[in-house]
Amino acid sequence: MEFDPASGLMKCPYCGQTRTVDTAKPDVETRHALEDYSGAEAAQRLGQMSEKALEVSCSGCGSQVIFEPPEVAGVCAFCGAKIVAQPKAADPMIAPDGVLPASVPRETASRSVKDWLGSRWFAPNDLQKLSRQESIQGVYLPYWMFDAESVTPYRGERGEYYYVAERYQTQDAQGRTVMQTRQVRHTRWYPASGQVQRSFDDLLVTATRAIPTDRMRALEPWDLQELKAYEPAFLSGFKAQRYQLPLAEGFEQSKQIMADVIQGEIRRDIGGDEQRIHQMDPRFFDVAFRHLLLPVWIGAYRFQGKVYQVVVNGRTGEVQGERPYSTVKIVLFVLAMLVVFAFLALLQKQ
Fold this sequence. Notes:
With 350 residues, the protein is an alpha+beta fold. It has one domain (2-157, 190-349). It has four helices and 16 strands. Strands 4, 5, 6, 7, 8, 9, 10, 11, 12, 13, 14, 15 and 16 form a 13-stranded mixed β-sheet that branches. The protein has a three-stranded antiparallel β-sheet with strand order 1-2-3, with no helix packed on it. A hairpin with a 6-residue loop joins β2 and β3 (18-19).
């Protein structure tokens, strides 16, 4: 049986029989303390996607994908290269805690890609291959989700506006020089220091490097309230990418996100009309994380030596991607426009 996004059930592709997915697993809200996965004992906490999971690496882009038989490696979903490496038993990893099951069927994703391509002028004909159902693959992408408490001492300045009347010369409607008065704004700066506290929940950091970060962000939002506890059955008929961003690096990225929020908290704490932050020292504690899998449909192909991707959010159907421009089509379009302009000019002369 394979997981069927349309019904959310396991479905036999031959007879259509269905059954529910067994999600009798630990609570999806379970978090792991970051410190438990940072020391020498971290290796003892690693696990598997499933007992039957196989793993293969793409020699083209380096992506590692995990799947269950009878699924096969085939073509890399991220770069379009043929995978010739032999699958092996999946290496231990930080096992997923939760999964957002795909709800957009392959057929719907293919239509969305076709509509997206139809709105792209000057795209080469080869790009139409991505609108075929067999050209896109269902992949669960890895994410880290972090929670943390923070305390941040800071030092800066608070700026307060004051206004001074200033006289200046100008000209009236008759061109005569006259004196006018205006209020000029100035700022007085006062030293400020203090400490802010902030809690962070469910900070999402993508753990794939195979898709540009801006494209991943454009696929948002994700309806994370529908997360399910991870169950290998969801992987049936799909692949899952092994996280490329290690947990420690993922946390560093989350710290950058949190630092931006903390700066806003500091500015509010300083008050006044303007603020300057000279120093801030964020300290994070009670850090916890989850490893999540979120669904996409993705197709990739090579054109003139470059890889182009089109990605569909497996929950909303949102399409994001890039495509090359066909020089032949552009030239033909320009020539056609020149012919039209020449014909119109000829009509005007007659």
